[in-house]
Structure formats: C-alpha cells, structure tokens
Design a protein that fits this description.
375 residues; alpha+beta; five-stranded antiparallel β-sheet; three-stranded mixed β-sheet
C-alpha cells in the first residue's frame, strides 16, 4: 500500500474519533438542559400547590370570620327579643335568628370542605417538594458527570488533534486537500475497493482500474464518488478460495435461479470448447458465446423471449457445465469482443474445479444426483 494511503487511513480514524468526541462534548449540555427544563416544571408545580394552599387558608379564615359575625348577630337578636312588645316583632326576630343559624351551618360546611382540600393539597406540596429534591440531586450529578466527561474528552481531543496534525504533515498536499474536500461533503474521503466494487458508492470498477488499484502504484480516485481508493487484500474474497476446490474444500455452487449464468460446453459444433453466458432480463434473455481458450467472442449477442432455460434449450445439453461467476452486464459490454484475462482465468479455474470434483465423486462412488447438481 502507498504510504500516503496508509497515512490517510490513519487520518480517517483520527478524523472519526475527533468528530465523535466533539459530538459528545456538544451533546452533554443538551442533556443537562433537558433535566433543567424538567426541574423548572416541577418548581412551577410546587409553587402552584403552595399558592393554592395559601388560598385555602384565606378562605378558611373568611368563613370563620363569617361565623363569628353571625354569632354576634344572633346574640344581638336574642337581646332585642327581651324587649319586644308584639308577637309579630318576636316572630320576626326568631326568623332572623333561624336564618343566621342556617348561615353558620353553611359556613361550617365550607370550612370542612376546605379542611378536606387542605389534606390533598398538603400531599401535592409534599410530593412536589420530594420530586424537586430528587431532580435537584440528579441535575447536580449530571452536571458533575458532564464536567468530568467534557474534561476527559477535551484531553483526548487535544491528543487526537496533535496526532492528526502530525499525520497531515506526512501526506502529499494535493492528495490531502482532495481527501479533506471529499470528506467534508461525503462524510468520508476514502473508499475501499472490494470485489471489483467501490465500497463508497457501490459502482463497479473497470477491470483495468481495478488492477491499478490492486497494484497500488499510484493514488486513484473514484470517478463516481471522488473518494480516494484503497485496497486491502485481507478483505478481498479470494477467487481461488471461492471457486476452486482446494484439497478437501468444496467448490461453491452457483445459484440455480441467478439472473446471469455461465456455462462451459466441450462440444459446441464447429467451435468445440466454448463459454456461454446467459442473462435474464425483463422477460427476455440474451446469450453470448466465447471461445474457451482465447476468450474471443463468437458471433453477436442473441436475444430471445423467455428465460434462458426456456429460450436456449438446445444449448443446455448434458455436457453443459454450469460455472461460477457473475459480472455486471455493463462490464461485459465493456469487454468488447474478448473476455479479460483475469476473468478468463477465474472461469478456467472453475472448470478445473468441476472436473476435479467429478473425479472425486466417481472415486467415492457418489450418487448421480450429486453430480448433476454441479451443472
Ligand atoms: Zn465511488
């Protein structure tokens, strides 16, 4: 791997960590603010309960004062009743006394109501006070935690920033500038190339580009997403592992329902040994034929209605061997009249693997069903 790319990979790690730390530092005050808001709500609730309790107290005093007034009035009526001359006057005073007594009972009822209310209010105030206390403690702890984490994060940030500065200095200026510009817009400035694909934007690489990236002789940039390519052989699915039966290892089986299917025919008319590739697409299928040893295309692309199994039954004889392999239709078009040598190598290896497997099957006298399953 190019030293610049190696350093860019390290820089990417540093950039990611710096961003994570910055986000964390920014998020902490927000968390504290949420609890503070809750705390303000509880405080308002407590104040409301307290002022309601105060209102009850005022009401109770008012009703008690009313009762005192009424009692005073009654004793005044009683005094007057001693001096009345007529029966009518006496009756009128008695009526006034009865009315005042009734009023006293009404006020007493109200006082009782208030007393019942006071109990409920006291409970409300106590609950709000307890909640406030708990939330105050919580917020103090949160704030303390936030202070600690922020301090730790700041320390880590300055370490990462120093590391980042060091890394940046070791990278060619042009590449660094490109990387940072793409990273700013796309979140990442590097993209791994794996299985012929840009992992940043999923675009397939042209075989030549792919080989250049693998060779790692110069910095290459994705034409589609502008990220700087890197290649890690450890992450690549090795074709040999995928296709060939290494001693004791089974060859991968091609999927029966795959939209693209490669076949080998040893006996294809005048051409002899050929490779055939079929593609199902939108109710039609296409066929391309290549000479097996050179990879040169024989004839043009033939399009027929239906899936390839329905459309080209005459091709799929018992001698046809189903191969592993899938390439993007666009890529196959780009090959032109010849299969690229790396692709051809893979197909040849698969043919060898099938033959080896068949031999092994015969040696171990397996069932014919298993042999045909390989087709
Ligand atoms: Zn890309």
């Amino acid at each position: 791997m190019l030293p610049d790319i190696e350093k860019l990979l390290e820089l990417q790690v540093a950039d990611k960590e710096i961003r994570r730390l910055q986000d964390e530092v920014a998020a902490l005050p927000k968390r504290v603010a949420v609890i503070e808001q809750k705390l303000a709500g509880t405080k308002a609730q407590l104040e409301k309960a307290q002022s309601a309790a105060k209102g009850d107290e005022t009401n109770r005093k008012k009703f008690e004062a009313n009762i005192k007034d009424l009692q005073a009035r009654i004793s005044k009526y009683r005094d007057q009743s001693l001096d009345v001359k007529t029966n009518e006057q006496y009756k009128a005073l008695l009526h006034e006394i009865q009315f005042a007594e009734q009023e006293i009972r009404l006020n007493e009822d109200r006082i009782l109501e208030v007393m019942v209310n006071v109990e409920a209010r006291e409970k409300q105030v106590k609950a709000a006070e307890a909640e406030l206390k708990a939330e105050t403690a919580e917020i103090e702890k949160e704030k303390e935690d936030a202070r600690k984490v922020t301090a730790e994060d700041q320390k880590k940030l300055s370490e990462w920033n120093a590391k980042r500065d060091g890394l940046r200095q070791g990278i060619s200026e042009d590449i660094l500038r490109h990387y940072e510009r793409v990273a700013k817009f796309r979140g990442t400035g590097l993209a791994e190339v794996r299985d012929h694909k840009c992992m940043g934007c999923q675009v397939m690489l042209r075989p030549q580009t792919y080989n250049e990236v693998r060779n790692g002789e110069k910095v290459m940039i994705c034409e589609s997403c502008s990220r700087v390519y890197y290649y890690n052989p450890a992450n690549e699915v090795k074709p040999e592992q995928e296709v060939v039966t290494v001693t004791g290892r089974k060859r991968a089986r091609p999927k029966a329902d795959a939209p693209q299917a490669w076949f080998y025919r040893p006996d294809y008319g005048e051409e002899g040994e050929v490779l055939l590739v079929y593609t199902n697409s939108g109710g039609n299928s296409t066929r391309r034929i290549y000479e097996m040893h050179t990879g040169r295309q024989v004839g043009g692309v033939l399009l027929r209605e239906g899936t390839y199994r329905q459309a080209f039954p005459e091709d799929l004889t018992d001698a046809a061997l189903r191969l592993n392999g899938h390439w993007d239709e666009k890529e196959i078009d780009e090959w032109g009249s010849e299969i690229p040598s790396d692709v051809l190598d893979l197909l040849h290896k698969d043919i060898l693997a099938i033959r080896r497997e068949h031999r092994a099957h015969k040696d171990h006298s397996t069932t014919p069903a298993e042999q045909t399953a390989a087709r």
